[in-house]
Amino acid sequence: MNGQTVALAVSTVIFAARDTGPDGRKELWVPLVRRIREPFGGMWALPGGPLLEDEDLEASAARALQLTTGLHPGYLEQLYAFGGLTRSANADERVVSIVYWASIRADQTSDLHADLNVAWMRVSELPPLAFDHSDIVEYALYRLRNKVIYSRVAYSFLGETFTLAELREVHEAILGTPLDPANFRRHVLASGAVLDTGTRLEGTPHRPPRLYRYNTDLDLADLFPAGRTTQEKP
Amino acid sequence: MNGQTVALAVSTVIFAARDTGPDGRKELWVPLVRRIREPFGGMWALPGGPLLEDEDLEASAARALQLTTGLHPGYLEQLYAFGGLTRSANADERVVSIVYWASIRADQTSDLHADLNVAWMRVSELPPLAFDHSDIVEYALYRLRNKVIYSRVAYSFLGETFTLAELREVHEAILGTPLDPANFRRHVLASGAVLDTGTRLEGTPHRPPRLYRYNTDLDLADLFPAGRTTQEKP
Does A35 contact chain B (CB < 8 Å)? Predict the structure, then answer.
């Protein structure tokens, strides 16, 4: 298992669904870091950097999250290792980047601290990023879209309790397409993925919507004829 | 993106479903390589080794497959990067292993070439492996089981055409549990994942079973209310 010496970096794609769209609809945002040196000086890149000697991969990804958002990860998962031969700007340098992705709950986004060299941008309006980071964000979004229906990932964008409209808007923000409210409601309730908390959203008009929570007992096992669940290993 | 210097290795978990069980039922097998030097000398380990300067990650994984089975990969996918601090036997050494997994079609297993230091073993009867490779195989199997229902992966174990019994036996070998033939048949046909080729298995008794092929047009999109498919990025 003796491996060749290759420069190794860890980067993290951090998604948040913020109520910044028309009528307060949710939109996907990611924090980016401005590069202060070459190559790609001045361009925006994913948070991250070299793997430190004394930290494992996930700790390195969590550190990037902490530095850019001030938050500890809720949902943090390894996405992919990118190791193409030509992805580094320096021909003498071989860099393999192990990329994680994380999500931040809506009720945490107010805690996001700002920094001249850290900016949150709409996923739908990203500028060209340094290195192959545009491709990495695109792939992270692709995987998030594939994952959102059959896993619990959508709930990681929400607080402990949420309305079905909030849950639908998270799906819409991730999938980038509107979903029929009635069909969505029927599908979610039929899946058994959520439980009615018996409480309703406060501070709302005369018919406050019900609040639900994720049903951790079920984990959408019903999608699987053999009774296996779709949950990734923690 | 300059990364720290860390030893990097690539290993590949190669699955094949072979007709070695009772009544010729399919069982999962993996090829292992005997270590000829310390640490863990004489123990079995996953095929793989250091990443070469001139090959990308997937090429390195494909090389391990070629060396141990003589085959070019059909299905080859990155599984996970393992980078724990204590996984190397040598305390001075930090090794990150990027692990791929591959599958071999049933009609290729006859091509497997043997080698004193390469052995195929039943997944259900593996000895303790070198390093953390036992955990890696366990995780690969966990992911394969989660993936088999909602993706095309089961078909990568089969030839271009197959009977529904063969398809069911691949699922049974992977899931490690018998499936009800009638329920399985109904589920598969209803999913639209397979197409009747109009031909039947030759050399079989008076009622030869129909041969099917994977429906590449559909990719089980029906599992997804929003119409997304479950396919991983190639």
Answer: no
Q: Is B98 on the interface with A (CB under 8 A)?
A: yes
Q: What is the pLDDT of residues A43-75, one digit of tens each?
A: 999 999 888 888 899 999 999 888 888 877 678
Predicted complex ipTM: 0.77
Spatial separation of the C-alpha atoms in residues B222 and A151, rounded to whole Å: 16
Query: Which residue is it, tokens 């609040």?
Result: A211
- C-beta neighbour count of A194 within 10 angstroms: 20
Q: A119, A112 in Cβ contact below 8 A?
A: no
User: Rounded distance, CA B233 to CA A123, Å?
Assistant: 20
Which residue from A4, A130, A224 is facing B51, i.e. has the nearest CB? A4
- Give the closest-approach CA distance of A205 to chain B in angstroms: 31
pLDDT tens by residue, A25-51? 999 999 999 999 888 999 999 999 888
Tell me which amino acid residue B48 is: G
∠ CA A5-A8-A12, rounded to 5°: 170
Pair of tokens at residue A197: 């908390």
